[in-house]
Amino acid sequence: MGKKKKIKLEYRLLSAIPDNYVDFYPLAREMKRRFVLHIGPTNSGKTYQAIEALKKAGNGVYLAPLRLLAYEQYDAINRDEIPCSMLTGEERIDIDDAQITSSTIEMANYSKYYSVAVIDEAQMIADPMRGGSWTSAILGILAEEIHVCASQNAEGLIIKLIRDCGDEYSVVYHERKTPLKLDKFSFEFPRDVEKGDALIVFSRRNVHAVASELHEKGYKCSIIYGALPYDVRHTQAELFASGINDVVVATDAIGMGMNLPIHRIVFLEQQKFDGIEKRELRSDEIKQIAGRAGRYGIYDEGIVTSYGGRKQIKYGLEDVDVSLRRAVIDFPESLIGIEAPLSLILEKWISIPVQVGYEKALSERELKLCRMLENQTHDKEFIYRCITVPFDEEDSKLLKMWYQMCQAEMKGQGYAVRMNIPRIEERSLDVLEQQYRICDLLYMYCDRFDRRRRIPDIMRAKARLSEEIVKLLSQQKLQQRKCRFCGKPLPWNYPYAMCEDCHERRYGWSERWK
């Protein structure tokens, strides 16, 4: 594209962007909405009170940060004999006569009217990867009454957005139900592990290694991390809650709304990889995870401790969280109509200045996928439907499958779903989790491109995979760290790939003579 055409494209793009991003949602601007902000720490009853308002209304939507939480509320509301459906990117459960839907926030419907909406964990509004979904929900959900649950540091930013929308709001402050205390004693692993502990690490590998090491010491472990199917995580949570398992070993996935009978949170690590870099935990992250200790009605207090990095955890609990200043906004779908290739529209959207109080979501993923398809078709609506299918594009097998699905749809043939539904042949966690992710992608393809005839087959395969994963976890067949040369077991946090004996045999003689 020449320089003049690029200038024209930028002009058209800027002309299509309103002076205030709130006007991307004209239907919501026609309403007079009323917000109720529930502000407080974890274990303070924010979500409970919001859900009670939803159940009382009998019509509305709960927008969750995780599939597991969408399922938990779906299950709890139906147990109260109030019909509730569930909608996530990977599953839809329709309940007869349901006027309430429990949904992941990415699946929010901005053309449907509700009496009450609940937006949970709204401090996620500043997350560079997913925050745009919370911004969209606050700016655009069509509900007369909207309950927003968030931590203290998000209050000012959320109020700014509500004021920009011209809507009314009130704030309800929630206090933690049980006190949270830093353990006065230092912690040694595995010597000091106790029943009721939740041990926190920040990778799937370390979850497996820690649980395997504890299993060797006689502990029964529940494990929870993001890559596990949500129904498996739910089963693992139930095994811990019922006392069948002694401890839970988890990533920070445990910090997002999971209500477990945890007495003590133990930070075995104090750094995490956030998708961009490995960094120290922020104070708000420490509070979010630590707050899961001391379940109200079970314990009188929650205890927090750390294996190393004790001062960091102490200061994180004491520090005042920095107030969020920018809400993340996703690429506005309305811009697709501009006369230009979608990849150029995305490039220009990424490059133009953002409005005050906002930050653009990371769009490089969509741009990369868009370029893969533009040499096949110029149908921008179709390309956008494809590139917004959620899957891990860093997984080469999933990326290849996604590309083949898109090509099949371009040709009007449809993808051979039934032939690609995984069959259980190798029973290892790595393989089973990969097969479950394949099923997720197959489901999303069928749902998005109206190929729902195969969905029952996919759901049966997912159920079988979950059962196999649960069996393996119940047998505690986890991946223990081992020396790459002799196979000797290594501690979960051992910094090298070989044991000391192998190192001595291989390098000890030469090092002594240096």
How would you summarize the topology of this molecule?
Blueprint: H1 3-16, H2 26-29, E1 34-39, H3 46-57, E2 60-64, H4 67-79, E3 84-88, E4 91-93, E5 100-104, E6 113-119, H5 131-140, E7 142-150, H6 155-165, E8 168-173, E9 180-182, E10 197-200, H7 204-216, E11 221-224, H8 230-241, E12 247-250, E13 264-267, E14 271-273, E15 278-280, H9 283-290, E16 302-306, H10 310-318, E17 327-329, H11 342-351, E18 358-360, H12 364-374, H13 380-387, H14 396-410, H15 417-420, H16 429-448, H17 455-474, H18 500-512
Parallel strand pairs: 1-7, 1-8, 2-5, 2-6, 3-5, 6-7, 9-16, 10-12, 10-13, 11-12, 13-16, 17-18
Antiparallel strand pairs: 3-4, 14-15
Helix pairs in contact: 4-8, 8-17, 9-10, 11-12, 12-13, 14-16, 16-17
Brief write-up:
The strands form four sheets. An eight-stranded mixed beta sheet has the order 4-3-5-2-6-7-1-8, with helices on both faces. A six-stranded parallel beta sheet has the order 9-16-13-10-12-11, with helices on both faces. It has 18 helices and 18 strands.
Shape: globular
The biggest beta sheet is recorded as: 8 strands, mixed
* Main β-sheet, spatial strand arrangement: 4-3-5-2-6-7-1-8
Based on secondary structure, the structural category is alpha/beta
Counted by DSSP, the helix tally is 18
Could you give the count of β-strands? Answer: 18
N-C termini distance: 63 Å
